[in-house]
Design brief:
Helices cover 66% and strands 0% of the residues. By secondary structure, it is an all-alpha fold. The structure holds protoporphyrin IX containing FE (HEM). The site of protoporphyrin IX containing FE has 18 residues, from helix 1, helix 2, helix 3, helix 8 and helix 9.
Length: 222
């Protein structure tokens, strides 16, 4: 008897792979004591300024890398300048730090993350994709909840000190679906998608290190 086996090539859908593959590290980072404190409204202005400063440096590097590598077809497909946060973070730094505010030097963990971004930009450009995914989809998800809490803690008026959380993109859920569709349209081999999953886990780990460092800053005498 001849068995008629229908062999199907199961394609890996990048957005699902990343969401499902990082669900455990996502749960872990949600439990970090810095974020727990933030969500409970327990954050001083000094610590929040440090938080903004660290992420200002990170986005500055990430967005510099994206601009540098726009000739890469996949990076170009994920080019959404309306997501870029460097300027927004700078505005928030000025709001909280005052007009003459100058960011201090980046912290040790921020430097580690930035150095990693520099390294992959040169040698494995496509891995930037994972960092864009982790930061921007994170900002458009839990980040939006966080924005509401920050507005409440510091009694912010819309447009003043909350730029980090404000995206000129219209409906956020619709935009997130567009972003996921764009991820799924990238020209990548399956092995690269698996590498991107590992890189996204690494991105969570770098983010976690930055948050732990902020936790130490928050509890240190000023
Ligand atoms: C307590 C803190 C956090 C909460 C409550 C939270 C909450 C959420 C929620 C509710 C979603 C699903 C949104 C949806 O339905 O589309 C989400 C997605 C996401 N979050 Fe978080 N999050 C937190 C922290 C973080 C952090 C620190 C990062 C990264 C550094 C992050 C990265 C992401 C990413 C990349 C997604 C998109 C998953 C996907 O749809 O592929 N989150 N988060």
């Amino acid at each position: 008897m001849i068995l008629n086996i229908n062999y199907r090539v199961v394609k890996m859908i990048l957005s699902s792979l990343l969401r499902e593959g990082t669900s455990e590290v996502h749960r872990n980072i949600e439990q970090s004591s810095f974020l727990k404190d933030l969500f409970r409204g327990k954050v001083s202005k000094d610590t929040y300024l440090k938080y903004l400063e660290s992420f200002f440096y990170l986005y500055n590097e990430l967005e510099y890398s994206v601009n540098l590598k726009l000739s890469d077809k996949n990076i170009e497909k994920l080019y959404f300048p309306e997501l870029h946060r460097t300027k927004a973070l700078y505005l928030d730094l000025i709001y909280f730090g005052g007009a003459s505010f100058h960011p201090g030097p980046p912290t040790e963990k921020t430097i580690r993350y930035i150095d990693h971004i520099k390294k992959i930009t040169e040698k494995e450009t496509y891995k930037i994709i994972s960092h864009l995914y982790v930061r921007y989809l994170g900002d458009l998800s839990g980040g939006q909840i966080l924005g509401g809490i920050i507005r409440k803690i510091f009694s912010l008026e819309k447009g003043f000190g909350d730029s980090f959380y404000s995206f000129p993109i219209g409906d956020v859920d619709h935009f997130k679906n567009t972003y996921r569709a764009r991820l799924d349209s990238l020209d990548l081999e399956d092995f690269q998608k698996l590498e991107l999953l590992e890189e996204a886990k690494l991105a969570f780990s770098y983010n976690g290190m930055m948050l732990s460092e902020l936790d130490i800053f928050a509890s240190s005498p000023k």
